[in-house]
Amino acid sequence: METESLRIFCAVAAELSVTQAAARLGRAPSNVTTRIQQLEADLGAELLVRAGKRIALSTAGEQFLAYAKRLLALEDEARQVVSHGASGGMLRIGSMESTAASRLPGVLAAYHVAHPAMRLSLGTGPSRQIVEQVRTGALDCAFVALPDGGAGLAEMGLQARPVWTEELLLLLPPGEADVDDARQVAVRSLAAFPQGCTYRSLAEERLGVAGAPAWRVQEMNSYHAMIACVAAGACVTVLPASVLALGSAPAALRTLPLGRLDTFLVWREGFATPAFRAFADGLPGA
Questions:
Q1: 205 phi, psi to nearest 5 deg
Q2: If you average pLDDT over residues 216-229, what whole number do you get?
């Protein structure tokens, strides 16, 4: 099983198109098809389901994709370590949406200037899911909110340290400007990220959502959408003051403080590639 075949398979899985994967890789489509067929023969399983010009991952293909990504990441890690970073390398970072928006732009720009040979990959999602991706090796490190201060991470083979402290705010709709306690909010709708988001869990606790049938949670994937719904008077939402300071919310909207929560950098115990060490050393609190 050659690593180049794994790269080709991952590209096809991402594009779900041999033609587009071939263009991305700078290869002929026939070569990509041949390499996939060789990989399937080597594994003894069909990785792609072909229906005319359309393709999709088979059940075996979906299972193998996670292993392929981990194998490629392990190869990259090995090359970085033995070459002391001279070979460049990839660092796969996970982050909460809020951290990616308000904290990481300057950090990533500075890292690129200082280490132009290193490549960065950034993905966002709820904290719980991101921590699991670090544990399984799908990500190298991540920025997450840990309400329990990281208790239980050691049992998962993970390490963590605080990087930033966020002031969390409850953003109120225009009609609730006089509210001075979270549980006095009249609107019974919370705009939040999907389950696994620590900020959502905190908001549900402070608002008394659990056990209150009148409450409804509208799941969204961006703060822009959440703020728009609050401005329309349809709901409340929770967000860090650092995100609100980006200027995306109408100035007339009031907020209530919900407390402070640390953002942690999480990584696998023993993971210490040159790319990661350089990145971690450039963060606050290093």
A1: -65, -45
A2: 93
